């Protein structure tokens, strides 16, 4: 059933196509307009992070949470299906961004920047996963209208936390040069793995919260 | 086949200052139960709790003898029609079979098409363009197309013109010809009940004022009308007392008849009388001067 | 057997159903051994609740007019012809009482009533 719901949710997300066209356009334009075509990958992540709450807003407007509660799928399936559909659309956007990067680079006559492309994808994935992992539990618990103002809380907490961590001795021993000499790909990969783990943990939390949500 | 379609004991819910319950609901399989009450009496809250949309304590509600509300199996056997549509406005009527049918093991596409036809729904129409009546009929068509045993409807006919109302009620009657089927519906249009409901639940400010057969309602309650004075003792028994220059009227329980003398007229109360007069007060002493 | 219900007559629906089924049996429209429509089908056809039909049928069983046969449904029992004749005669007498009262109220003479009766007797 999870696959059925994920497919259903993805279709709702991208159809009618005019919903997904402006974001797709932004991703393509980023490759064309900026000096580095690989920017489209980053643009893709930003765009998806903005689209995710929009999907919840659309659901709420049409009372689709109520629809889901009349279908023979339990709330856990809805949550997992939603996380999957967001990930699927992200991957599609990332593929589009890659295509745009390759094509524009080719048109410009410059080589495809593979060494930047990989970290760019990994970095974007981290950004998307963390942003979505932090926001979605709020949407599942409260619905879009009530959760939206609350989204700023995790952003503030994250920023403050990072600053506080910086104030402690945690990073004192870090020598910028030794950091720069690190092979970036394993570092980004570790980060991406961590972000995906956070994504999954967020889904688990959302399941618990959505189960308790009164409709 | 289950014996009891819906069983709830001590159902309660709190939201803000509104308190529901404790409410008991028992709908044996094969019967039709109507919920009536003024707006805000708790009908929708009760229905949503029975469907598992609002949280309930485990064991407080049992559907089909043993299923928890909100479980996938309970939902598969229940068709739901609510007072507001829950479809995306851009979806087309005809496409809903494919879009939603894939979730139901028992989806019958030919039933869906037959009902669309019967209700005069255009398959190419987008859900957002349907009138209130068409939306209600579409919701009913969807609910029936996965062959449920229990239909739960929240105000299915409110806002519908008389023709649409009759179409809906006719379909409900046909649904009830099968003895394994049951219906639970809330309404504030009491004439819907008179020829369809076997059992009735009267709700008043979050509490149950009456639960039993529709026949029994007329036996349990009576309307009292008089021109003379109302004694203090008699007045205690009257719900929703209304006075006018010619006299007074109000609702009493039939067992309170001895408190009145022969100067009053006492006759059986209709469902409307019960709902209106219970709603007019929170205690038998409150009065309304016209 | 055709049943017509009135929602404004003041007579409870189940009572009307009972009366009309009884009349059908005594009048010969329903023979011994005939099956009554199923509870649910009659409820749907007459647009009444299941309990209304159930109550009517249960009363008819108590009156020994029908019998709930396992597997077949409600079946018409052997009717006592004397009481059947008596019942149908009572129906005619009741109708006659009403006719006389109505005619008196309209200040019609016996001759006027005969004219009307002739009219309806030939068309029925």
3D architecture notes:
The complex is a heterotrimer of chains A (215), B (290) and C (124). Chain A has 215 residues and is mostly helical. Chain A has ten helices and no strands. The model of chain A has no long low-confidence stretch (mean pLDDT 85). Chain A has one domain (2-212). Chain A has helices spanning 2-14, 21-33, 39-61, 64-70, 75-108, 114-142, 144-147, 152-167, 176-180, 184-211. Chain B has 290 residues and is an alpha/beta fold. Chain B has two domains: 4-213, 3-Layer(aba) Sandwich (Rossmann fold); 217-289. Chain B has ten helices and 14 strands. Chain B has helices at 43-50, 72-76, 96-101, 109-118, 132-144, 162-176, 191-194, 214-220, 232-235, 271-279; strands at residues 4-15, 18-28, 32-37, 61-63, 78-81, 150-154, 182-186, 199-204, 207-213, 221-226, 239-244, 247-253, 264-268, 287-289. In chain B, helix 4 (109-118) packs antiparallel against helix 5 (132-144). Chain C is elongated and about 55 Å long. Chain C has two domains: 13-76, Winged helix-like DNA-binding domain superfamily/Winged helix DNA-binding domain (Arc Repressor Mutant, subunit A), CATH 1.10.10; 81-123. Chain C has five helices and two strands. Chain C is mainly alpha-helical and 124 residues long. Chains in contact: A-B, B-C. The interface between B and C is medium-sized, with 19 and 11 residues.
Structural descriptors:
heterotrimer; B: 290 residues; alpha/beta; Rossmann fold; 2 domains; 6-stranded mixed beta sheet; 5-stranded mixed beta sheet; 10 helices; 14 strands; disordered C terminus; C: 124 residues; mainly alpha; Arc Repressor Mutant, subunit A; two-stranded antiparallel sheet; 2 strands; 60% helix; elongated
Task: Provide a concise account of the structure shown.
The complex is a heterotrimer of chains A (about 220), B (about 290) and C (about 120). Chain B has about 290 residues and is α/β, with parallel strands linked by helices.
Main sheet properties of chain A: none
Span of the ends, CA to CA of chain A: 22 Å
Percent of residues in helices of chain A? over 70%
- Count of discrete domains of chain B: 2
**Backbone CA Rg of chain A:** 19 Å
Globally, the shape of chain B reads elongated
Strand percentage of chain B: 25-35%
**H/E series of chain B:** EEEHEHEHHHEHEHEEHEHEEEHE
Briefly note the structural class of the backbone of chain B.
Answer: alpha/beta
Walk across the major sheet of chain B and give the strand order: 5-6-7-3-8-9
The overall average pLDDT of chain A, rounded, is 85
Q: Return the string of H and E elements of chain A.
A: HHHHHHHHHH
SS field, number of helical segments of chain B: 10
Structural class of chain A: mainly alpha
Strand segment count of chain A: 0
Structural shape of chain A: globular
Question: Helical element count of chain A?
Answer: 10
User: What is the average per-residue confidence, as pLDDT of chain B, rounded to a whole number?
Assistant: 89
